[in-house]
Amino acid sequence: MFVPLLGLATSWLVNQQAVLVNQQRAGVRTTTASMISAESTAKAAWLAKNAPAWSPPGSFRGSVANTSPPASSASLATEDVAKQAWLAKNKPAWDPPGGFVGSSSLAAVPTTANLEAHSDKSPSCEFVHAPLSYFALDRLTAKGSRRSQGGLVDVGDPHDFTRPLAKDSEGRAAQWRGASVGAWACTIGGWDSPKLRPTTETFLVLDGEGSVTDADGIGHPFGAGDVVVLPKHWCGRWDIKRDIHKVWVVHDHPDVVGAANGIVRAVVSPLPSLSPEAQAVPVVEGALHEAPANVKHTIYDVGLTRVGFLSCSPGSFVVVERSTTECFFVVDGVFFLTNPDGSARRCSTGDTVLLPQGWSGLWNIIEPVTKVWIEVGVRK
Length: 380
Fold this sequence. Notes:
Layout: H1 3-27, H2 33-47, H3 73-88, E1 128-130, E2 141-145, E3 152-156, E4 159-164, E5 179-186, E6 189-193, E7 200-214, E8 219-223, E9 226-230, E10 236-251, E11 267-270, E12 287-289, E13 294-302, E14 305-312, E15 315-319, E16 325-338, E17 344-348, E18 352-355, E19 361-376
Antiparallel strand pairs: 1-18, 2-4, 3-6, 4-5, 5-10, 6-10, 7-8, 7-9, 7-10, 9-11, 12-15, 13-14, 14-19, 15-19, 16-17, 16-18, 16-19
Helix pairs in contact: 2-3
InterPro entries: RmlC-like_jellyroll, RmlC_Cupin_sf, UGlyAH_Cupin_dom
Protein name: (S)-ureidoglycine aminohydrolase cupin domain-containing protein
Keywords: Signal
C-alpha cells in the first residue's frame, strides 16, 4: 500500500535535494580561499578518524561506523589546531550535509494555491489540508544544530528543520484540542534525550533511517513507511543513520494514571497490508452508495491519544459532528472532502488532513484509501 507514496516521495526528494545542492553552492559565504581550503581538509580528516574521542554513555549504541584508517600523528596535530579554529567560528562557511537547507524566510518561496495548507473560515468546524509539497525540504525553517539548541549530541553534528501545518497569532504551531501538526527533517547524528517528554508524539517517516532507544537500552529501528509513537514521559536516545524527513502530530494532554509506571516504551509499527475487498469488514456508517467498507487497526490507545491505520474501499458517506479531533496522513488513494457549506477539496497520496472536533461533512472515496490516523479527545 505504501509503494505509491514511497515512489512519489523518493523522486520528489531527489529533485528537492538537487535544487538545494545548487542553492548551497551558490550561497556559501567565504572569507578567503585559503581558510576554506584548510578548513575543508581539516574537517575531512577529522570526520575520517577511526576512533572518536567520545564514548556514548551506558549501553547506547551510536550510528557511526569506521570507514577509513586512522590519520597519522602529524596530520592529527595539524588537524587539532584547525579543528579548534573551525569550532570557534560563529558561522561555519559550510552547510549541513545531505542537501538539507532550511528556509529561514518563507516569504522568499513562491506562494501558490496548491502549495499552501488550506483551512476554512472557522477552524473549529472546517477541515485543514496540505499536500506533500507543503512540507518540501526547501520550505522547512532551519533551527540550527541540535548542539547549539542544547542537545546532548555525541555523534556527528545533526541540524534540524521544521514547519507547522499552521501557526497561531503568536507564530507558534497552532493547536486543535492540544494537537499540533507539522513536518521535521534532520541530518545524520545521535544524541541522548534524558528529559521526560511533556507530550505524546506520533510521526510517519517519509524518508531516512534511524532508531530511538528506550531508557533501559531497548532499541527501536525505523525507516521510510514506519509509524513511531513516543508517549508522554518517554526518554532515551535518538540516532539518525540516514537524513530523515517525517510528518508529525504532537499531542499535549494531561498525565494518564499508570501510563508512566516502569519504562515508557516507544512504539514502532510498519504499515500493515490492509485490503477491505479481501476481508469481511463492517460497512461504513452513513454510507450513501457503493457500501464502502473499512479495515481499522489500532497500534496505540492510551488516555486521550489513539493511533492506527485504516483502509477504506470506494464509496460515499456522511460524518455528523465529530466527537474527537483527527489528523491523518494519506498513504494511498484519492478522495474528496466536502464541508457543510459545499466547499470541497481533492485529497490524494502524501496529503495531510486535519478534521477538528465538531466537523461535519461528506467523504467521497474515488480510489481505495489507506491512511495513518491520530485521534485525540474524549470519545462519546
